[in-house]
Specification:
- The protein is mainly alpha-helical.
- The chain has one domain.
- Helix content is 54%, strand content 6%.
- It has a two-stranded parallel ribbon with strand order 1-2.
- Helix 1 packs across helix 3.
- The protein is globular.
Amino acid sequence: MVMLDTNIILRYLLNDDEQMASEAETIIKYMPVQVSIEIIAEVVYVLKGVYHVDYIICIPQGERV
């Protein structure tokens, strides 16, 4: 099982570095992963504080907006 860190989650969500985002997507989609609550808190902190993201909309795979 892969323990995700903040960087992997941020690269996946932000897609700001194409190669790293692709690697993060592969890990998240195809490997069993685990994320601690501390990592989730850090991701939220960075998204709000550095990237000024107010909210994230989560859409289940296969559904349309």
